[in-house]
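> tool_call: predict_assembly(chains=two)
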Amino acid sequence: MSDKLTQDKTELVKLRSAGDLRNTMDAYFARLKEAAETRSRKIAWCTSVGPAELLYSLGFEVYFPENHGAMLGAGKNADKYIPTAVAHGYSPDICSYLTSDIGAFLQNETPLQKSGFSSIPRPDILVYNTNQCKEVEDWLSFYARHFQVPIVGIHTPLCIPDLSPEIIRSVSDQYHRIIPEVEKVAGRKFDMDRFRETVGLSHDGCVLWRHVLEKARHIPSPVNFFDSAIHMGPIVVMRGTRYAVDYYKILLTELEERVNTNISAVPDERFRIYWEGMPIWYRLSSLAKLFAKLDTCIVASTYCNSWVFDDLDPADPFESSALAYSKLFIVRSDTVKEKILEQLLKEFTVQGIIYHDSKTCARNSNNRFGLQNRLFKQTGIPYLEINGDLNDPRCYSEEQSIIAIETFIDQLAGKM
Amino acid sequence: MYRLGIDLGSSYTKGVLVDSANRMVAFHCVKTGYDFRKASEKIVSYFAENHEIEYPAYTSGYGREQIDVPFVSNSELISLAKAVYEIYQRPCSIIDIGGQDTKFIQVNARGQVDKFKMNRKCAAGTGSFLEEIAFRLDVTPEEFTEFAKNATQEVKINSYCTVFAISEIIGMIKNGATLPNIIIGIYNSIILRSIELSLVEDHLVITGGLPAMHPTIISLFKERYPDSDSPEHSQFLAAYGCVLLNNPKAEK
């Protein structure tokens, strides 16, 4: 029953590390800005689960359009830009990261202007991996045409059931194949030792990130999805650098303290939920407050928990990169996804699952082929499906979603 | 003393008065319009004129907190499920068709909600779909039922989108389809959208303002699910359930 909504329980317990996160991200953008302005270092654009380690090893500053897309969404500006991309022939039904990013570019606006950028940093090369979706290739191709710069990519097979040696070899070969073009733009030779080093740093960052997420196994959880979705910034954009490693050591220490002193992310945690699908960026804060009011902690999520590439191994950087980036949740078959989810539900003592069916992100909406019913039959854990979108607020009914979420929590409480 | 349940829906605000034996004794429904507070005040003053009301009132729906008397707000779906279980005392699959939402609720043998689903954010399968088409055809929703009686066959309306459905209907009219047959097509379109929400696993109970205003919809459901039915005053059941949730034991 929602009479408890009249009480003020919206105060979220903020992480002290938020200041360090801001400093880490500010420093990243300052490096990018400096490279963009002085042309002292080359800039590569990379998809979020693309070969960042390779690019960092070759001395690039690396910019991630998806991170920019999320900034547009979280800044509640995506709907201002999407119509411009649509008018240029990009359907409103395709990735709204893409349409909001291209629309903002066409309007010559970016949230980075607040950090002193005149525009997004001009790329010297664009590098993608289709492991997450095909749209990233289309997205980067727009900029390749616009800036007349090279674009190279890795084509990973989709819906992988078993990670066969053939798949790993194919992806690994493609890593090798893009090197000459990347070297040409970098103006330096590929250095195996340097690559081992960035792969090692990426591994270490991922392991720390995994430990951060695993702290949410504790009851009550010291961290929730709304924290993690923000604090994952460094593992997305600085994977392969010491900056990510340094930051997650700080965050992990704070979470360990929280566990030891029983400080929870949601003050009166009663329900533990798994979030399947993309964040609803433009409602992140209001949803965080809603769940806090309902004494509910989102303890794990596909979005955050699948960003762990701990198979990366400096001893075998190519093969291990191929393995790590093909093992990713989003690129796996439904059968594999079901097993991964089942395991996560157990590990995090989850009582209910919320599937966010994101209108413009089919690949990250896992309730479209019956998985939700099969997982329910397998685990008996109730679920809720809500319709929305990662960036496009026009696809989201807030009132209907609030009613559905409140009802779901009542359902879990066995109200009747 | 009577308890008051109010369901402040997007299209209509429904109030029900419940006696100490947990029986519904009086009903009142007003258009919600743009002001939930005004709508809830109309309900309160209507009942207060002739009955002594014990506050708080029990509310649900989109405007559940937009009321100027003491209240306890509740989930509309849980309330509806509670009321339906009170009536049927068995596992039920509920389809509730309202002005903006269509809902599916599965109630188990203990009267608890096992799962529920709401329509996508789209008019298809809701009262809005029918209202918009009625407006464009210049037929009042009330006339729909009369016209439907003269249907000789169903025409099939394929479009989800209200605008596309209207274009489709205009095409049908040009090709000689009759209004009664088209109306049956519209009703069936709403039914198809609602039954695709989830598998009907148990006794099907149809509730909500739309079937109450358009009883032909209930008959058409029966053609597909002979065991289905729609209780009296079904659009007031969420309001009734709010009272039941907070006053589980009736005085004998």
